[in-house]
């Protein structure tokens, strides 16, 4: 299955690293590769991870990717067109013969698809100012941040209500339903850090 994506101008190295690590996970983890003496797969997986990200996220041509990675166009094409479903059947032991597909390419494409579907490929680390961390009751704040993963900002009231419903905010010995506090803040909210500060003020 081909994944269609818009160029986001994100960090290609970081995304390729995520695809690489997800590929290893799909293969059963690094320990399993060691046990089965398959560590020689790692360079091919790394190469395939970059090809998949450059093609789908940076929208580069086969020739551009080949020049950037120092590999042939045929290799790039083999990776980019690998049938990930056939490769998945192969690594599950459901095929008697090794398919003609580029195995690492199929695994990397599958890993990329799973990351895109879960929103994890585009997920940014949530950063908070030190002042915010020091003034917040961190328990509920951490729960809020975990619910925000993969969410794009600025964010509106309805989507925040949906994501955060059920959380209880404890401030200075008092407890609040977060829905009640979200009714008191201004929208749109520009960032996770701004949201945490607004919730804190609403509970004051």
From TrEMBL:
InterPro entries: CHP03879_regulat_dom_put. It comes from the Archaea. NCBIfam families: near_KaiC_dom. This is Putative regulatory domain.
């Amino acid at each position: 299955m081909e994944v269609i994506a818009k160029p986001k101008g994100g960090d290609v190295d970081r995304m390729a690293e995520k695809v690489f690590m997800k590929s290893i996970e799909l293969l059963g983890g690094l320990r399993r590769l060691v046990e089965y003496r398959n560590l020689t797969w790692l360079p091919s997986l790394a190469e395939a991870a970059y090809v998949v990200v450059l093609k789908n996220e940076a929208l580069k041509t086969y020739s551009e990717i080949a020049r950037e990675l120092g590999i042939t166009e045929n290799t790039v094409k083999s990776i980019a067109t690998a049938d990930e479903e056939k490769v998945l059947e192969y690594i599950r032991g459901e095929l008697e013969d090794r398919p003609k597909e580029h195995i690492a390419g199929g695994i990397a494409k599958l890993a990329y698809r799973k990351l895109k579907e879960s929103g994890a490929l585009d997920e940014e680390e949530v950063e908070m100012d030190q002042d915010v961390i020091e003034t917040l009751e961190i328990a509920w704040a951490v729960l809020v941040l975990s619910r925000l993963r993969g969410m794009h900002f600025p964010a509106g009231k309805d989507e925040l209500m949906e994501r955060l419903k059920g959380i209880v905010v404890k401030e200075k010995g008092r407890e609040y339903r977060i829905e009640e506090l979200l009714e008191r803040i201004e929208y749109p909210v520009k960032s996770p850090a701004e949201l945490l500060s607004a919730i804190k003020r609403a509970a004051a």
